[in-house]
Specification:
The structure is a single chain. By secondary structure, this protein is α/β, with parallel strands linked by helices. It has one domain: STAS domain (Transcription Regulator spoIIAA, 2-Layer Sandwich), CATH 3.30.750.24. Helix content is about 35%, strand content about 25%. It is built from 3 helices and 8 strands. Strands 1, 2, 3, 5, 7 and 8 form a 6-stranded mixed beta sheet that branches. Strands 4-6 form a two-stranded parallel ribbon. Helix 1 runs parallel beside helix 2.
Length: about 120
Amino acid sequence: MGDVADDEVSIDEHGRAVIALPAQVDITTAERVREGLLSLVDSGCQQLHLDMSAVEKIDSTGLAVVMAFMATLHRERPEAKVLFDGLSPMVNRILHMFRAQDFNIETEFRERGDD
């Protein structure tokens, strides 16, 4: 699976572009995460899978990176479908509170343990 640590996007068995976010999505990882998310946009895949199962913390800088990713998709790839997978309940609440679902992009949020 692609990981922002190695700036690699992989394609899973369902044809989705997949990238795994690190445990900390914050000021210390923001640039690396931003580059990884932009590689998802550039992948050309219709379905984008953000594996957030390792994410324990997201600060305002990390949230800004995720929201900028959604805005870029809205502008450049409005037909894309995004899966935020493996969310902790806290990160799920934060993404909804900041209206990540309101970019007119088909978006699915799956918490850890949801199948």
